[in-house]
Amino acid sequence: MDTTVRKAAPTPADLTITVRDERFNRSTSPRRWWAGEPFGTAWHNALSATFPRGEAFFIEAVKAHREGADPKLEAEIRAFIKQEINHTREHIAFNRLAEDAGYDIKAIDTRVAEMLALTKDRPAIANLAVTMALEHYTAMMAAEFLANPKHFAEADPEVRDMWRWHAAEEIEHKGVAYDTWLHATRDWSGWKRWKVRSLVMISVTARFFKNRWTDSLELLKQDGITGWKAKWGLLKYLTVSPGVVRRIFPAWLAYFKPGFHPWDHDDRKLIELYEGDFEDALMPAE
């Protein structure tokens, strides 16, 4: 099962986690920034509304287990924290745009706050397991967003730049929570480690899609789109075209593999594409 000292596909020894202190969305005010398309707008507005509190939770969950980490992991944790702080700042700015455009996202923020309040009396290792699972989600979606130009082809340019920036850094630090988990559970058996992370992923998946679906439908309602039109449009967006949920399913399934590690798939070339001439180097969609 999972092993403390891995023989294959660990976090690359030459990985550099770069803190890119970028700022976006201080002057634009798109409403349907998904090129007039409401379903992607609702989905990504719903995601963004969770990030400020969610990423603060990730930071605390990882920090709680950094004692005794080797120097490499300790440095990666510090860089992870700095990146997540910047992501929080930029999504606060983005969420303000959504509110200025007339969307009420306070209910989403309140729901996230209530859910996080339930974690205060939970063992710290449980919060790390949840963070590890959600970090896998952000990494899966980040890779898909950078690899598939359909997601941002017609988006507001500044908004698109923010999501690509965020995606590049999520890929870059995708192994930090997982390596912190391996460090924190180094005295566990491989079977226990695999069982806990698998069960937590199943629970996280159920809650993630239930809550984001509810949040997206509420935002669509604010756009005057309700009933089956809203549900079918959102389902089509997520599973058909561009179909982010369908396209990340293999990566989600890989999480349950004994001995899994986020860097089993080295997708740093997507970061290189972001940092280079991204528009000319976009990988073609299927």
Automatic annotation (TrEMBL):
GO terms for molecular function: hydrolase activity. It comes from the Bacteria. Keywords: Hydrolase. InterPro entries: UCP07580 (IPR016516). Pfam families: Metal_hydrol. This is Metal-dependent hydrolase.
